[in-house]
Amino acid sequence: MKIALFNNSTLTVIFLLWLISCSDPDKEPNGYTTIEKWQDGKTAAVSLTYDDGSANQFNVALLIMNRLELPATFFINTGNISGSEYQRKFIGRPIDQIIKETETIPTNADNLFERASAIRMLGNYEIREHHTRAGSLWESGRKEEAFREIDKGYELIRADKSLQVMYQPQSGDLSWDDINNYASQGHEFASHTISHPRLSVMDEANLLYELEKSKEDILNNMGPEHTFSVECPYGTEDERVMEYMYERYEASRNRMPEPYLEELNRGSREQPGSFDKEYVQWQRGALSDTSLDQMKAWIDTCNVHNNIWLVLVFHGVDGVGWEAIPGDTLDAYFQYIQSSQDKIWVATFKDVSKYISERMHAEVSFAREQDQISIQLIHDLDPSLYDLPLTLRTYIPSGWKTVMCSQGESSKKLTPEKDEKGFFIRYQAQPNKDEIILANAE
Ligand SMILES: [Zn+2]
C-alpha cells in the first residue's frame, strides 16, 4: 500500500506524512514516540540537597561529590555571603514605637506579624528565638500560644534596655566568587531566603523582602540559572507563604502544587511505593543518627519502583552545622549512589523539576516517510526557563541497524535496542526547537 502511495506523485505532499500519533503502537510501532519518564530512560531520580550553607558542605561534601561527579543543590541564606547587597532588616514603623505599644496592647492576630518581624532585629539569640518558636506555634494552629510567645519576648526587651540594641548582620567566610566557582563545577545554588526567618509570622513587606531580595542577590551575582528553586526555611508549608512563593519561584522543595506529583515530606511515614501518581517526590532528611544502611535502603526503594524522585536533605557535615553527618559516611553513601547510576538519574533539584514539568506539558508527534521518521517535541512552558532536553524513545523499522539522529546542527549515530514492541532508539532532544530526523544510516 505504501508503494502505491509513493508512486502517485499528485498525492505525495499529502500522503508522505503519516501523522499517526494516536495509532496503536502495538500494531504500528514504527515512528511511535514517547517521552521517557526519567532522563536517559532511568528508573528513578535522586537530588542531593543541602540547607543553610554551613562550611563543611563545601569543604568536605562538595569535594566528595566532585570526585564522584555528582551534582548537588545548595539552598543558601544570601545574607551570609560576603558581598551580598541585602541583609536581615525590618521594614516598618520605628521599632521603639512597637516596643512601647507592647506595654499596653497584648499580641493578637492584628499585630502578630509586625511584632514577630521586628523582634528578629532585637536583643540576643534567646530573644530572637521567640520569633522562631512563635512561627512554629502559629503553623501548628496554636495561635494563642504564638501570641504569648511574642508577648514574653517583648516583656524581656522592655525590662532590659541592653536588649533593645539592633541586630548587626555578619556575613560569613563564603564569597560569591567561591559560590560561582562551585556552580561552575555543575552544582545548583538556590534561595533559602536572606536570613532564615519563620516566614509564616512575617508581614507582607518583610516576607517579600526575604523572598525577593535573596533572589535578586543571586540573580545579580550568579545569573538566572540559579533563581529557579527555593526552599523556605523550616520546610514550611504555610498557605500564605506558599502563595507568595509560587509567584516568585518555579520550583520549591517545600511543596509543589502539580496534580501529577505526590509529595512526601521529610516527616512523612508513608511508603512512596503506595502512590500511583505519575511522580512521587520522596524527601528524606539524613540526620546524625541515620545509619548508612538506612540511607542506602532509600536508594534501593527507588530501584524497585519507576516513579520516585528521592530528594535527600542534608544539613551539617563533619561536625559543623545542625545534625552533622560524618564525611566518611557521606563518602560511602555517595559512592553507593554513584554505583547505582545505571538505574538512577542523579540531578539537581532544578533539573529534575524541569524534566518532570516539561514532560507533563509536552506533546510529541511524528511523521513517517519511506526512509526517515521526523518528530516534533513541543511544550507550552516558558522556553527561556524550561530548556532541559528530554529523552525520547522512538520505534524504528527492524531493518535499521544504525540510526542517524539529528536535530538542527547536532547529529548522532545510534544503535537500536529491542523490547517486546520492537526495535527502538533512545535519545535526548531539545523541546521547542527543530524537528528531530531519524534515518537509516546503513
Ligand atoms: Zn534551613
What bound compounds does this protein have? zinc ion
Secondary-structure-based class equals: alpha/beta
CATH class of the largest domain: Alpha Beta
**Molecular shape:** elongated
User: Helicity range of the residues?
Assistant: 25-40%
Number of domains: 3
Low-confidence stretches: 1-23
SSE blueprint:
Layout: H1 2-7, H2 12-15, E1 33-35, E2 44-51, H3 55-68, E3 72-76, H4 95-102, H5 112-118, H6 125-139, H7 143-159, H8 176-183, E4 188-191, H9 204-222, E5 229-230, H10 239-246, E6 251-252, E7 261-264, E8 279-285, H11 292-303, E9 308-314, H12 327-339, E10 344-346, H13 349-360, E11 362-368, E12 372-379, E13 390-395, E14 403-407, E15 410-414, E16 417-419, E17 422-429, E18 436-440
Parallel strand pairs: 2-3, 2-9, 2-10, 3-4, 5-6, 7-8, 8-9
Antiparallel strand pairs: 1-13, 11-12, 12-18, 13-17, 14-15, 14-18, 16-17
Helix pairs in contact: 3-12, 6-7, 11-12
Bound molecules: zinc ion (ZN).
Zinc ion binds next to loops.
